[in-house]
């Protein structure tokens, strides 16, 4: 596997999962990424897998992801990211957008 | 994703492939095949340390327009320029094949199946053709799509839609030319060799790819509409593309065939006449061609808004 694969796990005290069974957001454009969120029984934990051509930024990924998962109080969710050189700001924004998408009821239709 | 109602008013150019696919068919009817959760991404890109996408840059699925089952193929230009590799190509090929198989099955069950219930395929092109990272597989995919077009001929209509940022170039330019009907917005671009490649191969004097106005005069929707490579011009709105598609799909296969630009001896002869004309006219710019087809004021055409353009423009007389 020539692409860099990073795995992280986080756990919040009293967490909530997403409303949809699964949800997808984003396009892997240059400097961008996609997020796949799935409801999954992980004993309250959140598992994150990042696939990226970039190496050497494991700590930054950890900081950005940890901050997002703490502030969103997520649990029992599996998150998979395909990244193509997204900056930390873009990563944070896409994660928040992905969460909003995952919590839309009735697919956002009125 | 934005709601269906909102998408209808939204720019086709600004939307992503999934939004286009979702918005091009009736509200709430789209089901995606091989969706991101299935994680069918390219096996070749990781070897080259290139980023992957769960859908490999192509959204395919099935929806309804009225009672008609409509198979949708929608390319994503922001992922490697919409270039077609092995997985994305296979998704295209098998989606068309599914449409043909469904047609055969429905007709076998009921030979008098009303036109309004017969399947169709729509393809939103946003691509430069073959993905060079997986060139052989990508080329093969192009050939296989052509094969499926031949199998669909006279059975399942194939409508090409071009209104994206990347446009439709390279091998996919040939594919678009081989569809039954092409619908474009003026922001859509269609060609074989893309502007940058012409400049690279032939020099800036031959073709200046940084001259945006000239690029659009040569490859853009308005020019293609005048010339006849595009049958219908619509506004840059997902709803406008959907409505025009629905109108066309209401026609019988026989009527639809009349919109083809290639695919018969008569049409080959017609295209050859255009080559003769180019030799005769020696145009320096698309504007020379527009003038030849009766546009008194070719200078004014590029800046006209959609409504004004449609009432003013004169097209090549052979156009349908």
* CATH topology description of the domain at 4-190 and 229-262 in chain B: 2-enoyl-CoA Hydratase, Chain A, domain 1
Percent strand of chain B: 5-15%
Principal-axis shape of chain B equals: globular
Task: Characterize the biggest β-sheet of chain A.
Answer: 5 strands, mixed
Characterize the biggest β-sheet of chain B: 7 strands, mixed
Low-confidence stretches of chain B: none
Mean pLDDT of chain A: 94
Rg of Cα set of chain A: 13 Å
User: Main sheet of chain B: which strands, in order across?
Assistant: 1-2-3-4-5-6-7
By CATH, the topology of chain A is Ribosomal Protein S5, domain 2
Write the CATH homologous superfamily of the domain at 4-190 and 229-262 in chain B. Answer: 2-enoyl-CoA Hydratase, Chain A, domain 1
Question: Which consecutive residue ranges of chain A, at least 5 long each, have pLDDT under 50?
Answer: none
| Number of helical regions of chain A | 2
Largest interface: A-B, 27 and 27 residues
Helix content of chain A: 25-40%
Number of domains of chain A: 1
* Assigned CATH architecture of the domain at 4-190 and 229-262 in chain B: Alpha-Beta Complex
Any descriptors?
heterodimer; A: 110 residues; alpha+beta; Ribosomal Protein S5, domain 2; five-stranded mixed β-sheet; 2 helices; 27% helix; B: 320 residues; alpha/beta; 2-enoyl-CoA Hydratase, Chain A, domain 1; seven-stranded mixed β-sheet; 42% helix; 12% strand
What does this structure look like?
- The complex is a heterodimer of chains A (110) and B (320).
- Chain A is α+β, with helices and mostly antiparallel strands and 110 residues long.
- Chain A has one domain (4-105): 2-Layer Sandwich (Ribosomal Protein S5, domain 2).
- Chain A has helices at 58-72, 88-102, and strands at 4-11, 22-25, 32-39, 45-52, 77-84.
- In chain A, strands 1-4-5-3-2 form a five-stranded mixed sheet, with helices on one face.
- Chain A is globular.
- Chain B has a domain at 4-190 and 229-262: 2-enoyl-CoA Hydratase, Chain A, domain 1 (Alpha-Beta Complex).
- In chain B, 46% of the residues are buried.
- In chain B, helix 3 (86-109) packs parallel to helix 4 (135-152) and helix 7 (212-219) runs parallel beside helix 8 (221-227).
- The longest helix of chain B has 24 residues, at 86-109.
- Chain B is globular, with a radius of gyration of 19 Å.
- Chain B has helices at 4-9, 17-24, 86-109, 135-152, 171-177, 195-202, 212-219, 221-227, 238-249, 253-257, 265-281, 286-292, 306-312; strands spanning 31-33, 58-65, 68-75, 120-124, 158-162, 181-185, 232-234.
- Chain B has 320 residues and is of the alpha/beta class.
- Chain B has a seven-stranded mixed sheet with strand order 1-2-3-4-5-6-7, with helices on both faces.
- Chain B is built from 13 helices and seven strands.
- The model of chain B has no long low-confidence stretch (mean pLDDT 96).
């Amino acid at each position: 596997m020539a692409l860099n694969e990073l795995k992280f796990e986080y756990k919040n005290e009293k967490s909530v999962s997403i409303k949809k069974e699964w949800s997808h957001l984003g396009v892997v454009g240059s400097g961008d990424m996609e997020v796949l969120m799935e409801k999954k029984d992980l004993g309250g934990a959140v598992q994150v897998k990042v696939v990226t051509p970039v190496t050497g930024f494991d700590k930054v990924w950890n900081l950005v992801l940890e901050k997002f998962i703490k502030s969103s109080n997520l649990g029992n969710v599996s998150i998979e990211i395909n990244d193509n050189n997204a900056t930390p700001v873009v990563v944070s924004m896409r994660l928040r957008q992905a969460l909003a998408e995952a919590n839309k009821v009735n697919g956002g239709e009125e | 994703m934005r709601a269906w109602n909102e998408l209808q008013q939204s720019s086709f150019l600004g939307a992503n492939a999934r939004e286009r696919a979702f918005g091009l068919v009736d509200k709430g009817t789209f089901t995606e095949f091989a969706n991101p959760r299935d994680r069918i991404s390219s096996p070749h890109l990781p070897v080259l340390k290139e980023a992957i996408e769960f859908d490999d840059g192509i959204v395919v699925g099935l929806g309804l327009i009225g009672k008609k089952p409509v198979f949708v193929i929608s390319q994503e230009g922001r992922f490697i320029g919409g270039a077609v590799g092995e997985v994305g190509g296979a998704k295209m090929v098998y989606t068309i094949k599914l449409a043909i198989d469904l047609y055969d099955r429905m007709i076998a069950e009921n030979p008098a199946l009303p036109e309004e219930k017969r399947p169709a395929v729509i393809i939103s092109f946003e691509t430069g053709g073959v993905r060079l990272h997986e060139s052989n597989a990508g080329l093969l995919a192009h050939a296989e799509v052509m094969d499926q077009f031949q199998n669909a001929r006279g059975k399942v209509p194939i409508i090409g839609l071009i209104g994206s940022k990347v446009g439709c170039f390279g091998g996919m330019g040939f594919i678009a030319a081989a569809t039954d009907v092409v619908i474009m917005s003026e922001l859509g671009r269609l060609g074989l060799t893309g502007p940058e490649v012409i400049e690279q191969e032939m020099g800036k004097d031959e073709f200046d790819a940084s001259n945006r106005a000239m690029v659009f005069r040569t490859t853009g929707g308005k020019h293609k509409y005048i010339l006849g490579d595009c049958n219908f011009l619509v506004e840059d709105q997902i709803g406008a593309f959907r409505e025009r598609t629905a109108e066309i799909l209401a026609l019988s296969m026989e009527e639809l065939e009349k919109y083809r630009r290639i695919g018969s001896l008569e049409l080959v002869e017609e295209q050859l006449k255009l080559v003769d004309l180019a030799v005769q006219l020696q145009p320096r710019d698309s504007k020379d061609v527009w003038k030849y087809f009766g546009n008194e004021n070719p200078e004014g055409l590029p800046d006209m808004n959609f409504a004004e353009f449609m009432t003013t423009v004169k097209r090549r007389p052979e156009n349908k």
